[in-house]
């Protein structure tokens, strides 16, 4: 059975590339453009996602805050989070620590390489 990922990412460009590349690996993907809609979608899902990919730089509520909320709620605390962000590495590491995320990938100009790293980490975490 395919694994389901929730991707909280505000960049349309990043969502398009993530969709294409993650589907190649057989993942089902649910997208949210901001933290609030991501939070609502996750809570409303009949079957909880296998993993959440979370950008930190989101409109309104930051991704770090969403990660902290999700890790503190009974309904979502066991769902692994991987942060996928272009923020400086020290900020990402701090967000990983605060949110309880399992890992991170820092975005850079070579998006395909970043996504390859992301896929490798996803497969390590959820198989």
UniProtKB/TrEMBL annotation:
Biological process according to GO: phosphorelay signal transduction system
Span of domain Response regulatory: 4-122
Query: What CDD domains does the database record attribute to this sequence?
Result: REC (cd00156)
Q: Which SMART domains does the UniProt entry name for this protein?
A: REC
User: 4-aspartylphosphate modification sites?
Assistant: 55
**InterPro entries hit by this protein:** Bact_response_regulator, CheY-like_superfamily, Sig_transdc_resp-reg_receiver
Which keywords has UniProt assigned to this entry?
Phosphoprotein
Task: Cite a single Pfam family from the UniProt record.
Answer: Response_reg
**Protein name per its UniProtKB record:** Two-component system response regulator
Its source organism is: candidate division KSB3 bacterium
């Amino acid at each position: 059975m395919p694994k389901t990922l929730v991707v909280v990412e505000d960049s349309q460009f990043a969502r398009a590339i993530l969709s294409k590349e993650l589907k190649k690996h057989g993942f089902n993907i649910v997208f949210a453009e901001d933290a609030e809609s991501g939070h609502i979608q996750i809570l409303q899902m009949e079957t909880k996602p296998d993993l959440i990919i979370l950008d930190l730089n989101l409109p309104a509520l930051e991704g770090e805050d969403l990660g902290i909320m999700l890790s503190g709620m009974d309904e979502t605390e066991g769902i692994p989070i991987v942060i996928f962000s272009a923020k400086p590495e020290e900020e990402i590491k701090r967000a990983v620590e605060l949110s309880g995320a399992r890992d991170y990938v820092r975005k850079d100009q070579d998006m395909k390489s970043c996504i390859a790293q992301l896929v490798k980490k996803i497969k390590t975490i959820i198989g």
